[in-house]
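Cont'd.
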Amino acid sequence: MSKETTEFKPTDWQSPEMKARIKRRYRKEKSFRVMGFTAVIIAALFLVTLLGKISSDGIYGFFQTSIDLDVPFSEAVIGNPRDMDADAFEQQVMRTNMLRLINDALVKEFPEVKSRRDRRELIRMVSSGARAQLRDMLLADPSIVGTTQRVRLLASDDIDQVRKGKINPEEAEANRKVKDRELAWYNKLVEEDRISLNFHTAFLTHGDSRDPEMAGIWGATVGSALTLVVTLAIAFPIGVLAAIYLEEFAPKNRLTDLIEVNINNLAAVPSIVFGLLGLAVFLGVMHLPRSAPLVGGLTLALMTLPTIIIASRASIKAVPPSIRDAARGLGASPMQVVFHHVVPLAMPGILTGTIIGMAQALGETAPLLMIGMVAFIVDIPGGVTDAATALPVQIFLWADSPERAFVEKTSAAIMVLLFFLIMMNGLAIWLRQKFERQW
Amino acid sequence: MLKMATEFENMTDVRTAKMSAKDVHVFYGDTHAVKGISLDLHQDEVTALIGPSGCGKSTFLRCLNRMNDTVTTCRVEGTITLDGENIYDPKIDVVQLRARVGMVFQKPNPFPKSIYDNVAYGPRIHGLAQHRTDLDEIVTTALEKAGLWNEVKDRLDSPGTALSGGQQQRLCIARAIAVNPEVILMDEPCSALDPIATAKVEALIDELKGRYAIAIVTHSMQQAARVSQKTAFFHLGDLVEHGDTTEIFTAPKEERTRDYITGRFG
C-alpha cells in the first residue's frame, strides 16, 4: 500500500515538455487551417475564372446586331394584294426573292455603290435570315405593300463581330475578315444611328443553323429534355428496384457479391464504352432510329444505372434497423416493411442519387457521338424518335465551327447547360429537404 | 401438505401454457448461443428473463416471434409452441405469428410518422378496422391502455418521434397492443428510460398482465421483482433456474442464481 503511494507521480501539466507539446499542437492545427483555406481559395479562383470567362464571352451570344433599313415594299416586286386573294398573295410572297427588297433598300441607302460585285458585297452585310424576316412581315400584314417601312434587319455575323469589338479595325486589312470598304459602310450606318445591338430571342427559340447569327439552342434543349425523359423513365425504376432487391431481398451469396462488384465497376467504366454498347445493341441489333433521343436516352440510362443503384443502396442501408424491427414486430410482411418504411425513409437519398445521375447524363457527350446524335439538325425534334442533338453535343459542334461568331455561341450554350444543371441540383436539394424526416 | 401439493400442481402442469419452449437451441454460425431451454409462458402472467449480458435471454426472446429469421446465420432447433402449434412449422405464417406475438424493443423506435399513424399502422396492415371510426376507436383504446392518451390526445397528428423517451416507449407499447396480440415480448423496455418513465412503464406492464402473456427481459433485479410473477435466470446460454419470482429472489436453489441476484457477479 505504501509502496503504491510512493510510486504514484502526478502528471506535471506545467512542465516545459508539456508546454512545448501544446504549442506544437496549436502550430499544427494552424498550419492545417492555412492549407485548407488556401485550397478552398484556389478552387474558388478556378471556378470564378471559368465562370467569368464563360459568361463574359457567352453574354454576347444572347445579343445580336441589327441594321435599320428603309425597305420599300414595292408592288412591282411583290404584286398587289388587293388584286388577288389571300392564298395567291401568300404564294406570290413565297415565290418572291426578298433579296430584291433588301437590295432596293441598300441602293437607296448607298447610292454611290454601283457595280454588281460591290452590290453583292453590300448585301452580304445583312444576314440571310433577313429574308425570312421580311417574308413573315408581309404575310402578317399585307397592307404594308406599297409603303416604305423602317425594318430592323439582322446583320451578318461579320458585322455583328465588328459591332461587338471582336474584329479590330486597326489590324492590317489582309488579316481581318471585314475589309476597309465594308468598315466604311458600317461606319456610315453607325453615324446614321442605324446599327443597334439587341437581345436575341431567336437564340433561345431556334434550332441550329450554319449562320451563327441564326443559330439557336432550342433544338438541342428539346433534344436533351427528351433524352433525359427516356433516361429517367428507364433508369429510375430499374435502378431503384434493383437496389431494393439487392439490399432487402437477395440472399447474400457469391452470386450477389459478384453482381455488387460488377455494379461498382460499371460506375467507373468510361462513358464512351456505353456509347459503343448502345451502337451495337440498340442500333445494330434492335434497329432503332439513328440520332434519336430514344436511343440516346437508353444509352445514357445504361450509364446512369450504376450511379442510381449505388446511391439507392447506400441510402436504403442507412435506414436504421430499429425501424425494420418495429414494422416486422407488428407483423408487417417483408414487402410492407420495405415499401411502407424503408423506401420512404431512403427516398431523399435515392432522389439525390438519381438527380446526380441525371445531371451526369445531361452533360454527357461521348456516348451520344457513338449513336449519331452529333448530326447537324435544324428542326426542333417533336418526339423521341425524331433526329435530335443534345446540349453538350451542340456545344461540341459549335466549338468545332470555323466562324468567329460561334465562339460566343458556344459559351452562351454552356451557360444554358450550366443553368439547367444548377436547376437540377437545386431540385435535388429541395427534394431532399422536403422528404427528409427525423427518426 | 395436501394444499401445498395442489398449489404446486396448479403452478406447473394443470394450466396449459400460452407459449411453450421445449429444448430450444440457437446457433449463430458456430456459436451456440442458447443451449436447450425449456420454458412456459402463461396467460395472465409476467415472466422476467434475467441474467448477465450475452447469456442468450434476448436471443431466446426473439425466437418466440421468429425475429431471428432475418439473421441469415441464425439456426433454431427444438420446438416452440403457441397454443399447442409449433411456430417453426413451415405451414405457420410468420407475419400472422408476429401479429399474435407482439414485441417492444430496448430502444424506443416509433415510426417517423404521426402518433395516430404509429398506433394505426398495425391495425391497418392487418385490416382490423373497416371504417375510420373503428380505427379511431382502436387507436384511442390502445393509447388509453398504454396510459398515454391524456398526454397526446390533443396532438395525435404531431410526429411520434417528437415525444420524450418514456412517452415514445409507451407509444411503442400502444402500437404493439393495438393489433390485439396474445403475447407481448419486451426486450429491456426500460433500459433507455429515466426512473419516472420506468415507473410508468412498469405500472403499465402491471396493468396489462391481466390480458396478455408477457415476457420481459431486464437487467434490473428490482424491476424483475416488481413486475413479474415468474422469473427465469439465464447464464451462458443455459436456463439455470426458473420459478416463482418470490421464490427465486428469496430462496434460490442454485448458487449461481444467488450470486447473480445479490450482485456478486454479472
